[in-house]
Fold this sequence. Notes:
The protein is mainly alpha-helical. It has helices spanning 5-10, 22-82, 86-147, 151-157. It has a domain at 22-140. The chain contains four helices and no strands. The longest helix has 62 residues, at 86-147. The chain is rod-shaped, with a radius of gyration of 35 Å.
Amino acid sequence: xxxxxxxxxxxxxxxxxxxxxxxxxxxxxxxxxxxxxxxxxxxxxxxxxxxxxxxxxxxxxxxxxxxxxxxxxxxxxxxxxxxxxxxxxxxxxxxxxxxxxxxxxxxxxxxxxxxxxxxxxxxxxxxxxxxxxxxxxxxxxxxxxxxxxxxxxxxxxxxxxxxxxxxxxxxxxxxxxxxxxxx
Length: 183
């Protein structure tokens, strides 16, 4: 089951006599839904950035292939012209090779920068997911602490053994482990 922020906001809980404060539960669910929605939006944004960077990477790879093809064509043309003028052909080859190497070097540098950006974004995404998991685990731990109902223990400790509890109910609370299942 895929959970959405709307599912968290619309979640309803059954009501019991000594249940949780509905406003606190609703407020917490709103906070969780907001955090989850923010995580989804950030993840979508990172995925868009990743797609854009991957497209640029493909463009640079195609440019590199084209440049390599161009360098090969220039070399071939230089060999054909070598018969007519070796000096002119040498200058053309050197110029084409330097330009091609510069373009290839620039393309590789840009490609490496894009790959570094992709790796950085993936690291940020993983870090965000771990942080969100940590926050959610802490919230679950807090809820488990809040689920413990020390009120019965405090009431029992305030009366001497065998002494009636006054106006308080003498029957056990629904959460009393000696009484069995909750009512």
